Amino acid sequence: GMNLLEGKTYVVMGVANQRSIAWGIARSLHSAGAKLIFTYATERMEKSVRDLAATLEGQESLVLPCDVTSDEDVASCFKAIKEAVGTIHGVAHCIAFANKEELKGEYLNTNREGFLLAQNISAYSLTAVAKEARTLMTEGGSIVTLTYLGGERAIKNYNVMGVAKASLEASVKYLASDLGKDGIRVNAISAGPIRTLSAKGVSDFNSILREIEERAPLRRATTTEEVGDTAVYLFSHLSRGVTGENIHVDSGYHVL
Ligand code: NAD
C-alpha cells in the first residue's frame, strides 16, 4: 500500500489470534510501511503473537508482555520499548474483558466485582497506557482505541461491556483534551460486530451479526481490514486535525 507510515513506530496491544481486530490493524499498519511492537496479556498468548508477528515480511517486531491490570507491567513494558526504540508514534489499544455470565440477560444483574473488572481492563487501561506512552511520543503521536455502539445505546446482551465502552469513549475525550498540547491525538474506532475470541463471550452474537448483514446501509459485516485501514488514517498525517473523535466503521449501522 501507500507508505503513509514509513519511518514510524506503533505499539499494537491486544493481538490474541489471527481473528483479532488488533491483527487486522497490524497488517494495515505494516502495509503502510510502519514498524510494529506487539504486546500480549499473558504467557498463554505469547507464542500465538510471536508466530503472527513473524509472518510480517521484512520486519522483526519486538514482542512484550503487558497485562494492563498491573501498573508495574504497563510501566515496565513501555520502559522496555523506550530502551529498544526511543520514540514511538502511536498506540493501538485493542483490549477488553468482561465476565461471560454478565454478557447475557439483564444488565441489572451485574455485580460490583464484574462491573469493576470490565471498567479496569476495558476502560481504565487506556488511561494507564496513555500516561506511559506519552513520554515516548516525543514527536507527537496518535492513540487509537476500539469501541462498540453498545457504549452509546442499550444493546441486548452487551450490558456491562456497554457501560465500560461509555467510560472508554468519555476517556477518549478527556485524554484528547489533556494530550492535544503535546501534539498527541486520541480517537476511537467504533467497529461493527466481528467474529473474534472476545465476541464469542457475547450471548447470541450471531443474531447481532445477521442484523448488520440484513439492515446496515452497506448490507455487509465489518471486517478487520476495514478497521485496520481506518486505523492507518487515524495514525497518519491525513487525520492531523482530528482528535477526541469516534469513527464508526460499521457499514453505517449506527445511523439507523
Ligand atoms: P480479541 O479477543 O481478539 O482481543 C481482545 C484482546 O484483549 C485479547 O488479545 C486479550 O488478550 C486482551 N486482553 C484481555 N485482558 C487483558 C489484560 N488484562 N491485559 C492485556 N490485554 C488483555 O477480540 P477483539 O474483538 O479483536 O477485541 C479487540 C477490541 O475490539 C476490544 O476492545 C473489543 O471490545 C473491541 N470491539 C470488538 C468488536 C467485535 O465485534 N469483535 C466490535 C467493536 C469493538
TrEMBL record:
<dbReference type="Pfam" id="PF13561">
    <property type="entry name" value="adh_short_C2"/>
</dbReference>
<protein>
    <recommendedName>
        <fullName>Enoyl-[acyl-carrier-protein] reductase [NADH]</fullName>
        <ecNumber>1.3.1.9</ecNumber>
    </recommendedName>
</protein>
<comment type="similarity">
    <text>Belongs to the short-chain dehydrogenases/reductases (SDR) family. FabI subfamily.</text>
</comment>
<comment type="pathway">
    <text>Lipid metabolism; fatty acid biosynthesis.</text>
</comment>
<feature type="active site" description="Proton acceptor">
    <location>
        <position position="158"/>
    </location>
</feature>
<keyword id="KW-0520">NAD</keyword>
<keyword id="KW-0276">Fatty acid metabolism</keyword>
<keyword id="KW-0444">Lipid biosynthesis</keyword>
<dbReference type="InterPro" id="IPR002347">
    <property type="entry name" value="SDR_fam"/>
</dbReference>
<feature type="binding site">
    <location>
        <begin position="67"/>
        <end position="68"/>
    </location>
    <ligand>
        <name>NAD(+)</name>
    </ligand>
</feature>
<comment type="subunit">
    <text>Homotetramer.</text>
</comment>
<keyword id="KW-0275">Fatty acid biosynthesis</keyword>
<feature type="binding site">
    <location>
        <begin position="194"/>
        <end position="198"/>
    </location>
    <ligand>
        <name>NAD(+)</name>
    </ligand>
</feature>
<dbReference type="GO" id="GO:0006633">
    <property type="term" value="P:fatty acid biosynthetic process"/>
</dbReference>
<keyword id="KW-0560">Oxidoreductase</keyword>
<keyword id="KW-0443">Lipid metabolism</keyword>
<feature type="binding site">
    <location>
        <position position="95"/>
    </location>
    <ligand>
        <name>NAD(+)</name>
    </ligand>
</feature>
<dbReference type="InterPro" id="IPR036291">
    <property type="entry name" value="NAD(P)-bd_dom_sf"/>
</dbReference>
<feature type="binding site">
    <location>
        <position position="14"/>
    </location>
    <ligand>
        <name>NAD(+)</name>
    </ligand>
</feature>
<feature type="binding site">
    <location>
        <position position="165"/>
    </location>
    <ligand>
        <name>NAD(+)</name>
    </ligand>
</feature>
<keyword id="KW-0521">NADP</keyword>
<feature type="active site" description="Proton acceptor">
    <location>
        <position position="148"/>
    </location>
</feature>
<dbReference type="InterPro" id="IPR014358">
    <property type="entry name" value="Enoyl-ACP_Rdtase_NADH"/>
</dbReference>
<feature type="binding site">
    <location>
        <begin position="20"/>
        <end position="21"/>
    </location>
    <ligand>
        <name>NAD(+)</name>
    </ligand>
</feature>
<comment type="function">
    <text>Catalyzes the reduction of a carbon-carbon double bond in an enoyl moiety that is covalently linked to an acyl carrier protein (ACP). Involved in the elongation cycle of fatty acid which are used in the lipid metabolism.</text>
</comment>
<feature type="binding site">
    <location>
        <position position="98"/>
    </location>
    <ligand>
        <name>substrate</name>
    </ligand>
</feature>
<dbReference type="GO" id="GO:0004318">
    <property type="term" value="F:enoyl-[acyl-carrier-protein] reductase (NADH) activity"/>
</dbReference>
